[in-house]
Amino acid sequence: MTIRIGILGYGNLGRGVEAAVRQNPDVELKAVFTRRDPASLTIQTPTAKVLHQDQAAGMRDEIDVLILCGGSATDLPQQTPAFASIFNVVDSFDTHARIPEHFAAVDAAAKKAGKVGLISCGWDPGMFSLNRLYAGCILPQGQDYTFWGKGVSQGHSDAVRRIEGVIDARQYTIPVEQALEAVRSGKAPDLTTREKHTREVFVVAEEGADKARIEREIKTMKNYFDQYDTTVHFISEEEMKRNHSGLPHGGRVIRTGQTGFNAEHTHVVEYSLKLDSNPEFTSSVIVAFARAVYRLHKEGQTGCKTVFDLPPAYLSPKSGEELRASLL
Amino acid sequence: MTIRIGILGYGNLGRGVEAAVRQNPDVELKAVFTRRDPASLTIQTPTAKVLHQDQAAGMRDEIDVLILCGGSATDLPQQTPAFASIFNVVDSFDTHARIPEHFAAVDAAAKKAGKVGLISCGWDPGMFSLNRLYAGCILPQGQDYTFWGKGVSQGHSDAVRRIEGVIDARQYTIPVEQALEAVRSGKAPDLTTREKHTREVFVVAEEGADKARIEREIKTMKNYFDQYDTTVHFISEEEMKRNHSGLPHGGRVIRTGQTGFNAEHTHVVEYSLKLDSNPEFTSSVIVAFARAVYRLHKEGQTGCKTVFDLPPAYLSPKSGEELRASLL
Q1: Which of A106, A137, B197, B301 shows the greatest Cβ crowding within 10 Å of its Cβ?
Q2: Which residues of chain A make contact with B22, given a CB cutoff of 8 A?
Q3: Which tens digits make up the pLDDT trace of A209-248?
Q4: Between chains, do A44 and B261 touch, taking CB under 8 Å as contact?
């Protein structure tokens, strides 16, 4: 009995989910849904259907978990609550500041429908969040630091692409080396957002576009760029393709904390990722958590969940006995 | 309403639990139980009782979770099942090979008594196990590596101390640098136990003890030393005190894995700890998980659990809403 998966949206993330499903024998891809013309998509799984997203509801009995692969800016705030009325869903909503309202909308829809909706799944939010939670509970007297990069942020690249006059864009997040060293030394420095990272954006603009306006719109974009020192480069489509076609990323979550009757001992907990492909790693996280969502739903749970709510064992195809014998 | 804690065994780990409880306002130390003369113990918490362990059962209604701070070699296999018949318990049983039988014994006792018993809690087993589980579920096509040290292993030091003629001992686990570099490069090397770590032991022997026999007993000790290259140094009590009184430790769990339709992308996931005090960090992990055990029991769950079974949110004093807003 396999876990039957649907994918909504066949961009980088959707293709990553398709690839990840192949590595998990207990999971099967049943359908890819798109808002484009289904005939225009070529997928890699001969046994799966390609359908327009309007046909998704008709597949409700053939899919256990629908994975939503749209963007956080405009797609997911609509899609996740809408599809949580029909399916168990997982999304990778990553606008941190808007998570509480997204949670509330998905929770209401999923509870009404008797479904489970897991939001903000991936590596940040996702695995980084989990590491912040665990380390913070272990070392309540301490300091949290998250560093990203060097790597391409899909969310930020996507946001720039939505600016008028922009054909294509790639945004690199770069950690500031001195800040990283100060943190790892256990000095517990107080760092502003600006002191921790810089942002570098490569833009292909339309012929005759107002580049000064585009640059200004990027640098002042709320939540995305306004708190960072950002450098913008305008390049040709050819250069974009040649030098910026990969989607590497990574980063680290560090917590330093003190223990002892007099806080005399210092500890450094660090979780780091070095990723050749950000969307494929994110997709791989999502597929593991889709297994957990399937199990929660089988147990009769409903409503919106986050990575904080799922027992780690639910992510694994192995039994509790196997896990204890091999991994504990 | 605080979570009321008891400590059984007031060695390094027990004192660490006492210190950790102070950092968690929702947790309170009610009693320390010892097999020594209670009058011989001086604890740091004026509001807590010091009692003989035979008096523990009489405190069953005043303690929510009893934390067992004995050793894995001989104490915990007896103590954890015995006390799981009376209390919710947490232990840090760390003999990996014997976890399945320990689980079975604690599970039977805890289920019969309607209690929850969490075993093998700490950093390894514990946080390292969790990181092996998460990374393995995310990257099913990959390789796991665990490196320890450089640091003092309490379990191994304790095992050496039980050898006849040994007054005191300190065992350092040391990762082999070339092995670590090969793993982090993504080369996925196949490493034997012996290639990954060396062990170094400092021993204070009794006057006139047979040092050759002690060294032989150490180097051939099953599960603890027989698979490693071990160096043994005999030193004076004074040198032990001067140079080896701290209990630093650390280590890292690394998983490298491949994703993509043709396994074309490589990822490196690394969790690392750098600890000034191994017992205080272990104790801090245990206290966070004791909170989770308390909640599971309140929900009506019973039986033996491991870190794999507990939803991460249960470790935190914060509400789901606070966690989503601040850490996700």
Answers
A1: A106
A2: 261
A3: 999 999 999 999 998 999 999 999 999 999 999 999 999 9
A4: yes
CB contact under 8 A, A313 and B133: yes
Q: Which parts of chain B sit beneath pLDDT 50? A: none
* Amino acid B186: pLDDT: 87
Q: Is the CB of A231 inside 8 Å of chain B's CB atoms?
A: no
Q: How far away is chain A from the Cα of B301, in angstroms, using its nearest Cα?
A: 14
pLDDT (tens digit, 9 = 90+) per residue, B18-62? 999 999 999 999 999 999 999 999 999 999 999 999 999 999 999
Q: Can you give the pTM of this predicted structure?
A: 0.92
Q: Which residue of A has its CA nearest to B44?
A: A261
Q: Looking at CA atoms only, how far is residue A219 from chain B in angstroms?
A: 25
Banded pLDDT at A304 (limits 50, 70, 90): very high
The per-residue pLDDT for range B99-123, each reduced to its tens digit, is 999 999 999 999 999 999 999 999 9
Q: Does B42 touch chain A (CB under 8 A)?
A: no
* Rounded Cα–Cα distance for residues B33 and B55 (Å): 8
Whole-angstrom Cα distance, residue A259 to residue A271? 20
Task: Let me know: does B277 contact A260? Beta carbons within 8 Å.
Answer: yes
CA distance A321 to A177: 44
Residue A154 has pLDDT above 90, yes or no: no
Contact A22 B261 (CB under 8 A): yes
List beta partners, residue B50. Answer: B32
Residue A1 has pLDDT above 90, yes or no: no
Contact A312 B133 (CB under 8 A): yes
Q: Hey, are the CB atoms on A311 and B309 less than 8 Å from each other? A: yes
Question: Please, which residues 44-103 of chain B have a Cβ atom closer than 8 Å to chain A?
Answer: 44, 96, 99-100, 103
Whether the complex's predicted ipTM is more than 0.90 is answered with yes
Give which of B96, B25, B88, B108 is closest to B300, Cα–Cα: B88
Structure tokens at A133: 């939670």
Contact indicator for A123, A173 with CB cutoff of 8 Å: no
Q: Residue A245 contacts by C-beta under 8 Å, 6 or more apart in sequence?
A: none
The helix (H) or strand (E) run that includes residue B128 is helix B127-138
* φ and ψ of B239, to 5 deg: -65, -40
The rounded distance, in Å, linking the Cα atoms of A33 and A46 is 15
Residue of A nearest to B284 (CA): A138
Q: Measured between beta carbons, which residues in chain B are less than 8 angstroms from residue A141?
A: 23
Q: Which of B138, B307, B328 sits opposite A99 (nearest CB)?
A: B328
Segment 267-296 of chain B within 8 Å of chain A by CB: 267-277, 280-281, 283-285, 288, 291
Nearest partner of B155 among B76, B237, B251, B261, judged by Cα: B76
d(CA A64, CA A34): 18
